[in-house]
């Protein structure tokens, strides 16, 4: 069973429809017990880190997600799901889950022509191989909408980056956890290919 975590952070149905497109049947649930029992987990989200963490804690989903991570369950984080998987977000100085050591920082630009939030299609450059990025090619672009970006402490947790004035990490992972700042469910063919790779991933990166 694949479970999409419902913590009142939006865009769940679009993720579920994209999963169905690649033959990955996924249910949406806010039940901590169902999360612990899931064979595969998708942790999407849009919105603010502070309110997201409040909702996760109120439902007991924070502890259940950490347990699933420690148990080796394959997990895919998306956008806000990625951001609140690090230790801390600059958005209202919010402590977050700590699945990967690092901070989430706000974009600060010297170029006044660049808008916040960063919104639209951008190329993603793979830095290191990963099973979830197996189908990614040099010219692939994904859809972004965000004002904050992840900065893991350990560079080896960064698998891909994107350019927006400077470069920033847009795909991070450790062990059985992998996450993207972009939205695969809104990225057409290339996003579906990424979800298809996740559907086949057993949570191991040893062969890469």
Number of helices: 6
Q: What's the shape?
A: globular
Radius of gyration: 16 Å
Estimate what percentage of residues fall within beta strands.
25-35%
Helix content, binned percent: 25-40%
The H-level CATH homologous superfamily, spelled out, is: Class I glutamine amidotransferase (GATase) domain
Structurally, how many domains make up the residues?
A: 1
- Mean model confidence by pLDDT: 94
Quote the CATH topology: Rossmann fold
Distance between the termini: 26 Å
Can you count the beta strands?
14
Architecture per CATH nomenclature, i.e. the level-2 architecture:
3-Layer(aba) Sandwich
CATH class placement: Alpha Beta
Helix-strand string: EHEHEHHEHEEEEEEEEEEH
Highlighted features:
208 residues, Rossmann fold, 8-stranded mixed sheet, 4-stranded mixed sheet, 6 helices, 26% helix
Give an account of the 3D structure:
- The chain is 26% helix and 31% strand.
- It is α/β, with parallel strands linked by helices.
- The chain contains six helices and 14 strands.
- The chain has one domain: Rossmann fold, CATH 3.40.50.
- It has an eight-stranded mixed sheet with strand order 2-1-3-4-14-13-12-9, sandwiched between helices. A four-stranded mixed sheet has the order 6-5-7-11, with helices on one face.
- The model has no long low-confidence stretch (mean pLDDT 94).
- A hairpin with a 1-residue loop joins β12 and β13.
SSE arrangement:
Layout: E1 2-5, H1 12-21, E2 26-29, H2 32-37, E3 40-43, H3 49-59, H4 61-70, E4 75-78, H5 80-83, E5 88-89, E6 94-95, E7 102-106, E8 118-123, E9 125-126, E10 141-146, E11 148-152, E12 158-164, E13 166-174, E14 177-180, H6 188-200
Parallel strand pairs: 1-2, 1-3, 3-4, 4-14, 5-7
Antiparallel strand pairs: 5-6, 7-11, 8-10, 9-12, 12-13, 13-14
């Amino acid at each position: 069973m694949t479970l999409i975590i419902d913590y009142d952070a939006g865009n769940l149905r679009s993720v579920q429809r994209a999963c169905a497109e690649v033959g990955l049947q996924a249910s949406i649930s806010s039940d901590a017990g169902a999360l612990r029992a899931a064979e595969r987990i998708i942790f999407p989200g849009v919105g603010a880190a502070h309110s997201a963490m409040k909702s996760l804690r109120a439902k007991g989903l924070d502890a259940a997600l950490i347990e699933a991570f420690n148990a080796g369950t394959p997990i895919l984080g998306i956008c806000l799901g990625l951001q609140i998987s690090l230790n801390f977000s600059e958005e209202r100085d919010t402590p977050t889950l700590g699945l990967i050591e690092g901070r989430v920082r706000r974009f600060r630009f010297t170029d006044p022509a660049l808008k916040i939030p960063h919104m639209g299609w951008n190329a993603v450059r793979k830095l290191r191989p990963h099973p979830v990025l197996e189908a990614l090619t040099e010219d692939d672009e994904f859809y972004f909408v965000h004002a904050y970006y992840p900065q893991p402490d350990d560079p080896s947790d960064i698998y891909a980056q994107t350019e927006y004035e400077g470069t920033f990490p847009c795909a991070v992972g450790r062990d059985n956890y992998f996450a993207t700042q972009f939205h695969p469910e809104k990225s057409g063919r290339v996003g579906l290919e990424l979800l298809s790779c996740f559907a086949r991933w057993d949570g191991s990166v040893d062969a890469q």
